[in-house]
Amino acid sequence: MYVRVTTYGFDESRFDEFMVKADSTLRDDLKAVAGLESVHSCRIGEGQGMIVATYDSEASAVAAQPRIQAIFGEMAEFMTSPPEVKEGNAVWTM
Fold first, then answer.
1. Rg (CA), the chain
2. Residue 7: which of 37, 64, 46, 52 has the closest Cα?
3. Secondary structure (3-state) at 5
4. Would you say the C-alpha torsion 53, 58, 60, 65 has a positive or negative sign?
5. Would you say 61 and 47 are in contact if contact means Cβ atoms under 8 Å apart?
6. Alpha-carbon distances, residue 45 vs 8, 51, 69, 84, 85 (angstroms)
7. Can you list the domains of the chain with their CATH numbers?
8. What pLDDT, in 10s, does the model give residues 45-66?
9. Residues above pLDDT 70, as percent of the chain
10. What is the value of pTM for the model shown?
C-alpha cells in the first residue's frame, strides 16, 4: 500500500459550499481512478484541510497524478494555499 498525504488551505467562509461541490462532483471521478483504494478528507484547523489517500502501489499513485490534479483542480476556487504533499510506502497497518 502506498499513502499520499496532502495538506491545503481553504476559504473557511465557503466550507459548506466546498463540501457540497466535493460530494457532488469528486466522488464518482475519484472512484474511477485506477489503483486508488481510499480517500479521507480531514479538517485539521480553521481553514486547513488534509487528505489521506491510499493506493495499491507507488506506480498507481504516480500514474494517477495527472488525473488527481485535474479532479482537485475543480476545487481551486475554494483553496487559499497550494497543496503540500508527503507520500511513501506503508510499513505498518492495523
1. 13
2. 52
3. strand
4. positive
5. no
6. 11, 13, 23, 15, 17
7. 2-89 (3.30.70.100)
8. 999 999 999 999 999 999 999 9
9. 100
10. 0.90
